[in-house]
Design a protein that fits this description.
It contains ten helices and ten strands. With 250 residues, the chain is α/β, with parallel strands linked by helices. A hairpin with a 2-residue loop joins strand 4 and strand 5. Helix 3 packs parallel to helix 6, helix 4 packs across helix 6 and helix 6 runs parallel beside helix 7. The mean pLDDT is 94. Adenosine-5'-triphosphate (ATP) binds next to helix 1.
């Protein structure tokens, strides 16, 4: 088991108010780490800190260390870091262009595509890896706005894959999706971990239990517990975790 990301004593603040406290956690390569916890527990702040999305927010500050493959992310070039750690937001919206153009947009901008033949191959691979190829292969030139919400969600995953990141951060990727679309996104996440390392923030405790190799429970800015998913759900060590996963919270 190789640590892809190591977080050491991380504290995050907005307007000097601490919203994430003394967080030490590892994310293991080619695993899915699920993060669960009630609203305002710091889950999104954690993801945004991992790819330095909050760095431009003047009210935000942080202390502590985060390493990607042993390299300190706060010393890295930002564009390089974001290529390696990509984030998919809750309810992402495709660009108002064709399915094909949506996928090639970022790789083109980053200079990753030089030949048209490479381009077709990248589009096909990204759509296959996002489990969407079979559904859209005959209409790559139709507008991305004309496919279903669940398909748009997987298209946004394909857009990320086209840039070939190492880590993918998902922030509530299935909010607003029906159970069948949710199941498809979950299936593609499980397939993706062969190639990528995944951190999945979810409000859906059952989703964490279905797809996470490990699950972490955050509460009011603190990591209450992290364990193998099977252990955490069958025999949580902390009473607060037990209350949360059994829906007896609050
Ligand atoms: N940009 C911001 N400016 C000020 N405070 C913020 C900002 N973003 C988040 N917060 C505060 O930080 C705390 C943690 O928020 P965060 O969004 O990380 O929680 P969360 O666990 O993702 O919640 P949810 O489940 O509702 O998405 C909350 O108290 C929130 O109000
Ligand atoms: Mg959030």
């Amino acid at each position: 088991m190789v640590n892809k990301i190591e977080v050491r004593d991380l504290n995050c603040y907005y307007n000097k108010r601490c919203v994430l406290e003394s967080l030490t956690i590892n994310v293991i390569q080619n695993e899915i780490l699920s993060i669960i916890g009630p609203a305002n527990s710091g889950k999104t702040t954690f993801l945004r800190t991992l790819n330095r999305m909050n760095d431009l927010d003047a009210t935000y500050c942080r202390k502590g260390e985060i390493y990607l493959d042993g390299e300190h992310i706060f010393n890295m070039n930002m564009e390089n870091l974001r290529k390696r750690i990509s984030m998919l937001f809750a309810m992402p919206i495709p660009l108002p262009m064709t399915i094909y153009e949506n996928i090639v947009y970022a790789p083109k901008r980053l200079g990753l595509i030089t030949r048209k033949s490479d381009q077709d191959a990248i589009v096909e691979q990204a759509l296959r890896d996002a489990s969407l190829w079979d559904e859209v292969k005959d209409r790559l030139n139709t507008s991305a706005m004309k496919i279903s919400g669940g398909q748009q969600q997987r298209l946004c995953i394909a857009r990320i894959l086209a840039v070939n990141p190492e880590v993918i951060l998902f922030d509530e990727p299935c909010s607003g999706l029906d159970p069948i679309s949710t199941a498809k996104v979950e299936e593609s996440m499980i397939e993706l971990k062969e190639k990528y390392t995944i951190v999945l923030v979810t409000n859906n405790v059952k989703q964490a239990s279905r797809v996470g190799d490990k699950t972490a429970f955050f509460l009011m800015g603190k990591l209450v517990e992290i364990d193998e998913t099977d252990k955490l759900f069958v025999s949580p060590k902390e009473k607060q975790t037990e209350n949360y996963i059994t829906g007896r919270f609050g």
